[in-house]
Design brief:
Elements lengths: L2 H9 L3 H36 L6 E5 L10 E2 L2 H6 L4 E14 L2 E9 L4 H4 L2 E5 L6 E5 H7 L6 E8 L5 E14 L3 H4 L2 E4 H8 L4 E2 L1 E6 L5 H11 L3 E4 L2 H7 L1 H35 L1 H9 L4 H36 L13 H27 L3 H6 L2
Parallel strand pairs: 4-9, 6-8
Antiparallel strand pairs: 1-11, 1-12, 2-10, 3-4, 3-11, 5-8, 6-9, 7-8
Helix pairs in contact: 1-12, 2-9, 2-10, 2-12, 2-13, 10-12, 10-13, 12-13
Length: about 375
Amino acid sequence: MTWAKLIRKNLLRRPMRTALTAAGVSIGVGLIVALLSITNGVANTANQLIHLGRADFGLFQSGTTDLTKSLLPQSLEPRIKKEAGVQEVAGIELYVTTVDKQTSFLVLGMQPGQFPWRRLVIVRGRLPGQNEIVVGDGALNSLHAKLGGTLKIKGFKGAPAFKSVTRSFRVAGVYHTGDPSEDSGGVMQLSALQKLSNHPGEITTIAITVTPGRPSSEVAKEIASTIPGILPVAEPGQAVKIDTQSRLLISAGWIFSLLALIVGGIGVMNTMAMSVSERTREIGILRAIGWPAYRIAALIVSEALGICMLALGIGLGVGVLAARLFTSYGLISTFVSPDFTAGVFAWGLAFSLGVGLFGAIYPVVRAIRLAPVEALRRE
């Protein structure tokens, strides 16, 4: 009998116990995969948002729970423009709304003539007028939009009730920037979007390009020190710290993952300890016919890892599904997409192996301490 067949035979002696143990470990693997993929997605989205229009960095409202919830007065632009090291400024509104029944759609409001507007590459049609919109090439198919057609966009009007309204905008063109967030959204004139969102005179962020030769981080610090309530964001890591929802989810995810590691390890330990207890006579026979202690230990460890490899397969699927559910139903920041890199799956594998090795320690010690003669005497 080969080594693999021996492990399989031993694990299938108590199939329900093996399955339940694997299920417990798979929850931990799934949490790790979901957590890390969402963390990557938040960082990617943040990187795209703070560099809108190929800006060097962006200014946001301090204390906001989400970058898209930031509100700044548009009147700040001239003051920011006078700051040392600032080359160009551009006020941008980020508006997440429903467009033709597609929820969480990002619409950008840009001011004609400013650098983000100038850097839009129109691949079809033309730049939008006052009651028009251009859509990114990534959003064209998902919206089933046509050049010259119309899109129904949800907005608000009035105060303080802010009654929901839906307005139609003509599709004037299709653009491409190379930024996934921008290319999966739409762009309209800033004044038109401010009217639609009922935020007259307000913007979400001020995009900034710095004078050549000046470090972005240095300019950002100078602006932060002179204007209270403004938070310059130059790195994705800073954006993740601002986003309260994502930060809470990530912190909770690490806590639950640690708990899953402990509980999963105890589960594997319990399963393997019971297996060793049930197979005491068998282990005695193996020792009597010449199996050294290290080989007995290797068998127990291999069985524990076998359970965890089964858990890994289940856990990867659970993690992918959980990450998509978290992002699809708005449990974290809007339009964040999980990023499943090789590193994410490698951490899932490391977690699974770690649980297996941790859970095998006590059963291995117990098995190798069994004296062959005493083991053979047991029924």
